[in-house]
Amino acid sequence: MLLQEERYVIKWLSQYGALQKEQLIKMLRKPRNTAERILKRMKKDLRIDYVSGGYYVGLDNMARPDQRTILAVWVLLQFAEHVDPLAHYPATYPSQLFFLKENIGYEIVVLYEGEESNLRLLKPDEDLKYIIVLPHISMAAKLRLPKAPCLFATVDYQGGEEPEVTFYSQGEI
């Protein structure tokens, strides 16, 4: 029988594909050594596998990480204390991830350079907010935003295990 945390890990990996090991450790919301033991036990029991030398974790070693999803999960982790472990899901394109925080729905949309027009595909709802993840905040000036509250974020890897996530409001750009 699986522990609740093990069920969470399997659910997350089946929803998102391979994730960074560091992301799973943070998503478990346990002391680091406890979270690492949970993952180690799951690996030993052949429930998960390491991908790319253990940097990523997937349900099997053929799982391939989706970089947009990886970025979206880093943004989600900034709200982890306010989001139930099972209150986030893959979203409909062009969004990567949907989550509920205090009964408000958020969609995380990861855009790369040249994809500014993808925002036209969004279908705003009155109870929905968007977090738009950009490679650099200067790209925000080129966007035609949906008629819904938007927040911007950048995810900057500076050589560490965990990147720095910076948020910007519409008034700051």
Describe this structure in words.
The protein has 173 residues and is α+β, with helices and mostly antiparallel strands. The model has no long low-confidence stretch (mean pLDDT 93). It has 2 domains: 4-58, Orthogonal Bundle (Arc Repressor Mutant, subunit A), CATH 1.10.10; 67-172, 3-Layer(aba) Sandwich (Trna Endonuclease, Chain: A, domain 1), CATH 3.40.1350. Helices cover 26% and strands 25% of the residues. The N and C termini lie far apart (50 Å). The strands form 2 sheets. The chain has a 6-stranded mixed beta sheet with strand order 4-5-6-7-8-9. Strands 1-3-2 form a 3-stranded antiparallel beta sheet. The chain has helices at residues 4-16, 21-28, 32-44, 67-77; strands at residues 19-20, 49-51, 56-58, 88-90, 97-101, 104-110, 128-134, 150-156, 164-169. It has 4 helices and 9 strands, in the order αβααββαββββββ.
Tag the structure with descriptive keywords.
2 domains; 3-stranded antiparallel sheet; single chain; Trna Endonuclease, Chain: A, domain 1; 26% helix; alpha+beta
Low-confidence stretches: none
Order of helices and strands: HEHHEEHEEEEEE
Strand proportion, as a percent range, falls in 15-25%
- What's the CATH class label of the largest domain? Alpha Beta
DSSP helix count?
4
Quick structural overview:
With about 170 residues, this protein is of the alpha+beta class. The chain has helices spanning about 5-15, 20-30, 30-45, 65-75, and strands at about 20, 50, 55-60, 90, 95-100, 105-110, 130-135, 150-155, 165-170.
